[in-house]
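User: Hi! I'm working on a homework problem where we have to compare a predicted structure to a textbook description. Could you give me the structure for the chain below?
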Amino acid sequence: MTAQYRSADALSLSIDGVEKVEHALTITELEEFAELAERQRNGAPGSRLVGDETVRKLLSSDRTFDRLATARLGNNARAVRAVFFDKSAQTNWALGWHQDRTVVVREKIDMPGFGPWTTKSGAVHVEPPFSFIEGMISLRAYLDPCRNDNGPLRVAAGSHRKGRIPTDAIPKVIAQCPEVLCLAEPGDVWICATAIVHASDASRSQARRRLLMVDYAANDLPSPLRWAGI
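Assistant: Happy to help. Predicted structure tokens:
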């Protein structure tokens, strides 16, 4: 990285591909989030959430997630995937620099421009035309403090404007882009362009780092493909 932002105040979703909304969740939403987290104590570092009533309540109209997403994607914004992450000394991991390229759909239906297809933990993933990824954002809401030492998200600011980046070109891109460390307090929300290049180090702390990540899309998939949904 050639530089690093010191403050989240200067960040713009359109220019940098990332922005921070401090104290975004209400007290009620944090309580609901804590209830959700207690039910996810399964030892897994990440769990895709489907059919969970608490998640649906958190994502309902005129709540924080919905307001943040519609303000950025418009009234057609829809939540298409929710994942609960619990990083700690017991459930620890690291991710190298990469760009997300796949979406989760209800079933495999071959269509021009969609592929390759994979199945992960029973969910059908496909790489769509990259314009679909460019029309998505990911909201990450934090239940715990996220510090330098417990594996914060790292993003290459502005990399979302470079289109689909070949894997072997990613080192050059991250060398050109300022790095942002997504540090947070409980209730903060980081909003990222889904197309942004990002990474995460392993935690060096005993503290937990629990968050709810929700992907939003601005458009439907071409029929008969359908988002897997929440």
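For your comparison, note the following. Residues 8-217 form a domain with the Jelly Rolls fold (CATH 2.60.120.620). DSSP finds six helices and 13 strands in the chain. Good luck with the assignment!
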